[in-house]
Specification:
Elements lengths: L1 H10 L4 H8 L3 H13 L12 H14 L3 E5 L12 H16 L5 E4 L3 H9 L9 E4 L16 H8 L2 E3 L10 H8 L2 H11 L3 E4 L2 E2 L5 H4 L5 H9 L4 E3 L2 E3 L26 E6 L5 H9 L5 E5 H20 L1
Parallel strand pairs: 1-10, 2-3, 2-5, 3-4, 5-9, 9-10
Antiparallel strand pairs: 6-7, 7-8
Family: Belongs to the SorC transcriptional regulatory family.
GO molecular function: carbohydrate binding; DNA binding
InterPro entries: NagB/RpiA_transferase-like, SorC_transcr_regulators, Sugar-bd_dom_put, WH-like_DNA-bd_sf, WH_DNA-bd_sf
């Protein structure tokens, strides 16, 4: 009944009074049914257009950062309360759904992270049983438990495609352990499959001494301190770069097990980024030259523009 009420409301554009009459229930009951459908994730909202100032900002960032495409989800904050993932996940979900629905991609390589998880949750379901979905950055933590932000299984459920998990941790404990993983035929085959993907969708992680890497127990305190004392500002597919897009000299770069970002260069690589404190990390990731498309929220886009322009002025001053 909740599903029928949702159809009548959002597709049929009936009022709650009309729906109550059709279903033979009270208007209050209709309100509760629609709220239930929303809570259960049965209703997904998409807006076909973006505000003109967002589009103007997109064009500015494309020119300034050398991107092929940039898409900005409008700011939804209210009285200082910012939804870091809702708008960007809604747009990215719709956008990636469109790319997959046209059948042009037979294999998609996916990273991990909170923003990507929210993106997949926002995608409408489709039937693409021919689609291969490949993890490019490891599906496990160092404790060999499932990575909570791995998106292969949710994307498989949303598309009906076939998922391929890279059965290794995001970062190995030691270089020797990494070499052991890479020596396994199954890992070699999966990395080769990932290299051949038609499309890549990745997240961008920021770097701090007490950031997400440490909170999710992907690195040790000593490794986090090493990152903090380096120029590293961004985690891209398990490799660490500075604001200029150059890989930094830290031990963790020798312990990443998944696909190297360089293997995606020249392909369509879509980075989906949301949340505060990501401007420097986003600039560093874009400066690597690997990312072709950027999907971000408006607040982050304005922070990124300010940071990029400051950097450009500093270079001119030199």
């Amino acid at each position: 009944m909740a599903i029928r009420a949702a159809w009548l409301s959002f597709i049929g554009r009936r009022t709650q009074g009309e729906i109550a009459e059709i279903l033979g229930v009270s208007a209050a009951k209709v309100h509760r049914l629609i709220a239930q459908a929303q809570r259960d994730g049965l209703i997904k909202f998409f807006v076909e257009a973006r505000p003109a100032d967002c589009i103007e900002l997109e064009n500015t960032l494309v020119d300034l950062l050398g991107l092929q495409h940039c898409f900005i989800a409008p700011d939804l904050s209210y009285k200082g309360q910012r939804d870091p993932f809702g708008a960007v996940a809604s747009f990215a979900g719709q956008f990636i759904h469109g790319l997959l629905a046209n059948g042009s991609a037979a294999c998609i390589g996916v990273g991990m992270g909170r923003t990507l998880s929210a993106t997949v949750a926002a995608m409408p379901k489709m039937q693409r049983p021919d689609l291969a979905i490949v993890s490019i950055a490891g599906s496990l933590t160092r404790r060999l438990s499932a990575n909570p932000y791995d998106v292969v299984q949710p994307l498989q459920a949303a598309t009906g495609g076939e998922g391929f998990y890279l059965p290794v941790p995001y970062l190995a404990e030691t270089i020797e352990e990494k070499e052991t993983f890479h020596g396994q035929r199954s890992v070699q085959d999966l990395i080769a499959r990932a290299e051949g993907a038609d499309l890549f969708v990745v997240g961008i992680g920021s770097v701090s001494a007490d950031g997400h890497l440490l909170q999710r127990k992907l690195v040790t305190r000593e490794e986090a301190d090493e990152l903090a004392s380096s120029r590293a500002c961004v985690d891209l597919m398990g490799r660490f770069y500075d604001r200029e897009g150059d890989m930094v000299s830290v031990s963790l770069n020798e312990k990443a097990v998944g696909l190297h970002p360089e293997k995606t260069r020249g392909s369509r690589v879509i980075a989906v980024v949301g949340g505060p404190g990501k401007a420097e990390a986003t600039l560093g990731a874009v400066r690597t030259g690997v990312i072709s498309d950027l999907i971000i929220d408006e607040a982050l886009a304005r922070e990124l523009l300010s940071l990029a322009q400051t950097k450009e002025l500093a270079e001119v001053a030199k």
